[in-house]
């Protein structure tokens, strides 16, 4: 006669000798319907959970080393358009790769550059691919007032065009 096996949470009990044996080497499937609350944890489930935990920990790691803002590389895609008198006349699309950070005395800065393509309504076509770059920064003067500035440069056929801006910001 084959002994009937009962399962508890941590052990299985045989009807034959009524011995409690550790569940380390169970070869019979506990999900066979004998005990409905029994669960099987496979190595695959553990690895999946461990990988997800590792990914979450790695994603949170930069937050341990940064203050309120995270400094580092970034990508920026931007579309600009000009609408004098309410109708479109020209625009451009920029793809920028940049880096931002903060100095020890609290000056936030950024630098970025990449290709840009111009578009004009008169010709209804895109121009040549040029290179554009930004260099900018800001500094808090008081708790509510900060100053900022930016320099923009772009190639234009064989020329190099520059523009810049400076300003102050008041936060309410």
Q: Can you walk me through this structure?
A:
With 172 residues, the protein is mainly beta. It has two domains: 5-61, no CATH class; 72-170, no CATH class. Helix content is 13%, strand content 51%. It is built from one helix and nine strands; from the N terminus they run E-E-E-H-E-E-E-E-E-E. It has one helix at residues 43-65; strands at residues 5-7, 11-14, 20-22, 72-82, 90-102, 107-120, 125-140, 145-156, 159-170. The strands form two sheets. Strands 4-5-6-7-8-9 form a six-stranded antiparallel beta sheet, with no helix packed on it. A three-stranded antiparallel beta sheet has the order 1-2-3, with no helix packed on it. A hairpin with a 3-residue loop joins strand 1 (5-7) and strand 2 (11-14). The N and C termini lie far apart (84 Å). Residues 9-15, 35-48 and 63-68 have low confidence and may be disordered.
Describe this structure in a few short sentences.
This protein has 172 residues and is mostly beta strands. The chain contains 1 helix and 9 strands; from the N terminus they run βββαββββββ.
Specify Rg, calculated over alpha carbons.
32 Å
Approximate strand percentage: over 45%
Task: State the helix count.
Answer: 1
Mean pLDDT: 75
**Overall morphology:** globular
How many DSSP-defined strands? 9
Proportion in helices: 10-25%
Alpha-carbon distance between the termini?
Answer: 84 Å
Largest sheet: 6 strands, antiparallel
Uncertain runs: 9-15, 35-48, 63-68
Number of domains: 2
Read across the widest sheet, the strand sequence of neighbours is: 4-5-6-7-8-9
* Sheet/helix structural class: mainly beta
Order of helices and strands: EEEHEEEEEE
């Amino acid at each position: 006669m084959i002994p009937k096996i009962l399962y508890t949470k941590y052990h299985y009990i045989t009807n034959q000798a009524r011995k409690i044996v550790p569940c380390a080497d169970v070869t019979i499937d506990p999900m066979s319907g004998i005990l409905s609350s029994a669960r099987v944890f496979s190595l695959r489930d553990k690895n999946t959970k461990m990988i997800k935990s590792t990914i979450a920990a790695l994603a949170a790691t930069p937050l341990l080393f940064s203050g309120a803002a995270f400094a580092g590389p970034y990508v920026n895609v931007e579309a600009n358009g000009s609408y004098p008198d309410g109708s479109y006349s020209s625009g451009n699309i920029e793809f920028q790769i940049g880096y931002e950070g903060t100095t020890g005395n609290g000056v936030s800065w950024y630098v970025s550059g990449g290709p840009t393509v111009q578009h004009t309504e008169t010709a209804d076509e895109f121009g040549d691919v040029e290179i554009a770059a930004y260099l900018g920064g800001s500094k808090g003067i008081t708790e509510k007032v900060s100053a900022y500035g930016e320099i923009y440069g772009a190639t234009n056929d064989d020329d190099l065009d520059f523009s810049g801006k400076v300003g102050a910001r008041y936060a309410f």
